[in-house]
Structure prediction request, 340 residues.
Amino acid sequence: NAVESGLTHLAVRHVILCHTADEAMRERARRLRERFAGSAPGCDMKTLETGLNGSRLPQQLVAEDGAQGIHVNITPGTKGQTAFLTLWAQRNKAAVWSLNPPSVTRLDAEAASLPITACDPLLLLQMRYPDVRVEGDTSDQALYEGLLHHMRACLESGQEWSLQKDRTVNGMSLKRTGFKTWMLSLPSGEKHTFSEAEGDWLEGLTAYSLSLMGAQHVHARVRLPWSEELQLFLEKKFQEEQHRLDVDVIAAWKGGHLLVSCKANPTIPIPDAAAEARDMAHALARFALPALCHLGCRESYLADTGYEEKVPVFGWRDLCRPERLAALFAEALGCRRSTV
Prediction:
């Protein structure tokens, strides 16, 4: 998304993508070049392999004679690569930019910022895991809208909402019809049935609420295929063998990305679930904001998971009020920018 913003606002004609010299990064660079060629015709992308600490970048990067309008993005990569890219930029009188969602900020005397729009988060996963698939069905808007209305009615009347017992409020009833199956009846006479067996109803409902909040490119039940690359990533990032292959909901919002983990079982420990959401968000993208929809949460808050970033945790009371979700996520983003 930062590159695409540059193409729009800075009329970029040539791009050099620096990456470490290993097979996984070579493959990711190849996929990115293919996608770049299709989305940015007329702009040439080249790749440059460099070391992990970036110390060779000032010698490897050579500006062509008469080159003007050079811009450097120091957001990705290691701290060493960032430092040496900045050094190279200063020597070559190039502008230095840093991604700080929802904008790209220029870090020199001509300080400026450009608004950005986040790409579809599914594209980020596809570049790393080509066989990623989306299994969630978010098209049943009538059911989701009915459930949100039922939740709001319970909230306004001071009643608890849950899939523990039948509940009738304001002419709307939610009744169990079988083992883990429910029927929602609306005053209009509409009836909607759903199953709580797999939890996909909550993922679809959360995705729908995010779309009402203003999120874009919303996907539910994203599945990452098991691969050697994913195994290595999990072992390196989390030092454990737990298979985190299920991504409940992802979306683009305010120039960044959201990853929401959904827990319909109210007895699951919230701290563990919040930490899981944090870890999975790191697998999606560096700046992805993790969040947790937990039906055992009575009041939304920002969970401290032992890192600088906070994880927004919310339950059905905020799920049915998208404006409250937007405020909660905005608060989490504000905390992140003030501490990172």
